Amino acid sequence: MPSAAPKLRHPRWWALLVIGLWLGYALAMLTRLPTWALPLVTVGWLVLARWRRWGAPACPRPVARVWPWSLVPLVLWGLYVYLAASFGEVDLGAVFFHLQAGISEHGGSGRLVSALLHTLSMLLLLVSFTWLVRVDRRWRTTERLLAVVLLAGNPMLYGLGQRGAAIVTDDGAWLDRQYVAPVILDAPRAPPNLLLLYLESIERTYADRERFGDAYAPLEALGERALVVEGVRQLDNTGWTMAGMIASQCGTPLMPAGLLHDSQFEPLGRVVPGVDCLGDLLAERGYALSYLGGASTRFAGKGVFYRDHGFDRVMGREELEPRLPDPDYVNSWGLYDDTLYDFTVEEIRRLERQGGPWGLVNLSISGHAPNGYPARACRERQGEFDGTDILYSVECSAWLARRLVQRLEAEGLLENTLVVVASDHLTMRVSAWEQLVAEERENTLMLMGERVAPRRVRVEASTMDILPTVLEAMGFVIDWHRAGLGVSLLSDQPTLIEEHGLETLNARLREETALQERLWEGLAPSQRAAATEAVVVPRG
């Protein structure tokens, strides 16, 4: 042991250990390698390094004061690994959209600590790799090739390249040609109310009792008297909250505004202004529309979207927190779901007193990755929360949603009302991640109402199909059973996924430009300037 101590104090082994830990961590985050395999990868790296004498060559040469070419590629990989570790699957569309829509008032304070620790570990990696390259000539001779390999293999750069290639693709309007502007041709004599409950990240995958126990059981019980749709997949650019809500309410993926945004350094003033969505259609029919969510409506353009698409009242943390009986009962994002649902009941009572058809959209927070925010009512029912078990939070979210529906029914507030329960998107990385990605995943979608017969439907669909499905479930007649890129799941018409497959649609989405222009019509400065010139009349 005394003879081994000086060797362990040598920077060689510390540098190799840091590199090995990072290698294991990256493989665990980017592949389906279980997290317990991380130390095995690290040990394997150290054994290989000892065998090859990395950092201690047989014929040592003077230390070269050089800077590795691979430092920048390593930083880019470090960013990609951080995104994968935080969200599970890296969606560049989400990154671009949030940068433009605004990320103030977010509740991810825990991620700031994670980002700081990740940055510090990344600095250690860069220092360790630089030391190895300077000390070991063999690494200096091959390191430039490694830099090229790291750049070429980075999925983030590959995604950026694909998006840039869309500008010169042969056909950037394939999806746009499939788009059908939503039009209501006929309506029932007494149009029903609509209650749309988005359950944050509560995907239907959790219904598998073998993998997740009874976490989803309250929703399964609710689904016994509902139309339950199985097989609702997730298309690219629909995998975060705003994208999921836009996909299900507008029938289209949320393609970021990109350079179509009129000001690249300010938050968006409008969100998908070029298409009509569920709120627009219902507002034209005289519906009073409300949105309630526990988080801030300033985050990611949420409030802008709802106000811009027919909603009369948009209430988030800023509007609801002052009304809390206990001002301290909030989490980093905002209100817990038990108090949010109390406000939801109050709002529906108000809408009922007002008369006329109404629609209310509600977004929960209990299941938010990475650990969820289980409410006080759940902790009293389920016992102590360990702070990490997402299945605890899933059960909480499911139970609160079922309890809300039962409470509204008991008060007679759901007469002539269609209730839709849906996940906004598939969950991001959580404690049950390895079980979730083990098999094919699907979103939650169930509909309850007088016009909907309870049953289960298995279909290959996407969240874009929710818009036409909801309209037809409410008794509205729409053109060709279609709205946006969606097809009503109450009809016998094939969905786009059934016709073309999910991979084909995702590939088309990466090449699409025309649909992006349709979504953001009117935001491009050149378009606005042209419109201004068209109405200017010369004097004289």
Structural overview:
Residues 269-475 form the Sulfatase N-terminal domain. Keywords: Cell membrane, Membrane, Transferase, Transmembrane, Transmembrane helix. This protein has two domains: 4-167, no CATH class; 174-522, Alkaline Phosphatase, subunit A (3-Layer(aba) Sandwich), CATH 3.40.720.10. It is 48% helix and 11% strand. It has helices at 4-9, 11-30, 38-52, 71-87, 92-101, 109-135, 137-153, 155-165, 174-178, 209-212, 217-223, 241-250, 278-284, 302-308, 317-320, 337-354, 376-382, 390-410, 433-436, 466-473, 496-500, 502-511, 514-519, 525-535, and strands at residues 184-186, 193-199, 227-233, 288-293, 313-315, 358-363, 417-423, 445-448, 455-462, 477-478, 482-483, 486-487. The longest helix has 27 residues, at 109-135. It is elongated and about 90 Å long. Residues 161-168, 262-266 and 525-540 have low confidence and may be disordered.
Briefly summarize what is shown.
This protein has helices spanning 4-9, 11-30, 38-52, 71-87, 92-101, 109-135, 137-153, 155-165, 174-178, 209-212, 217-223, 241-250, 278-284, 302-308, 317-320, 337-354, 376-382, 390-410, 433-436, 466-473, 496-500, 502-511, 514-519, 525-535, and strands at 184-186, 193-199, 227-233, 288-293, 313-315, 358-363, 417-423, 445-448, 455-462, 477-478, 482-483, 486-487.
Q: Strand portion, in percent?
A: 5-15%
Mean pLDDT: 87
CATH architecture of the largest domain: 3-Layer(aba) Sandwich
Strand order of the largest sheet: 5-4-6-2-7-8-3-9
Share of helix among residues?
40-55%
- How large is the radius of gyration? 26 Å
Tally of individual domains: 2
Shape, principal axes of CA atoms = elongated
**Helical run tally:** 24
Structural class: alpha/beta
* CATH C-level of the largest domain: Alpha Beta
Provide the CATH topology of the largest domain: Alkaline Phosphatase, subunit A
CATH fourth-tier homologous superfamily of the largest domain: Alkaline Phosphatase, subunit A
